[in-house]
Amino acid sequence: MKIPIYILIVDDEPDFVDMLAMRLGDEGNKVRTALDGKSGLALLDEWDADVVILDIKMPGMDGMQVLKEIKQKHPIVEVILLTGHGTIDTAVEGLKSGAYDYLLKPANHQELLDKLEQARKRKAEHEERIRQAEALALVRRTGGM
């Protein structure tokens, strides 16, 4: 049984967003969408996504700004950068800023699915390490009782 991935798609191309959301949803994932960076950040504040698929080139707040804010406010949420205007420099900057990975449009759908699953697993591992650290801290504070 497949564990659903909670995915937020942030991209300013409505047709692309609708099609990708439909395909990912049909595969059993939970998908929400936003057509700009500010809306995406607001949605992320109220909905616990595992992975954000983030377009880099958007009017207003661009994807790199959104990525940096996501990593500041929601550090364990994984981000996959997706763009039709990619450069190696942008990829390197995105990865240095905390993105999980980087794909060019049009991305191979199976490759995107694989990266989404890997990113979900990485987030789950981070959450488990946090739970273990919190449990250890609680045991130490209570003297092992």
Automatic annotation (TrEMBL):
InterPro entries: CheY-like_superfamily, Sig_transdc_resp-reg_receiver, WalR-like. PROSITE patterns: RESPONSE_REGULATORY. SUPFAM superfamilies: CheY-like. One of its GO terms (biological process) is regulation of DNA-templated transcription. Residues 109-136 form a coiled coil. Pfam families: Response_reg. It comes from the Bacteria. Keywords: Coiled coil, DNA-binding, Phosphoprotein, Transcription, Transcription regulation, Two-component regulatory system. GO terms for cellular component: cytosol; protein-DNA complex. The modification 4-aspartylphosphate is found at residue 55. The keyword DNA-binding applies. Residues 6-120 form the Response regulatory domain. GO terms for molecular function: phosphorelay response regulator activity; transcription cis-regulatory region binding. This is Response regulator receiver protein.
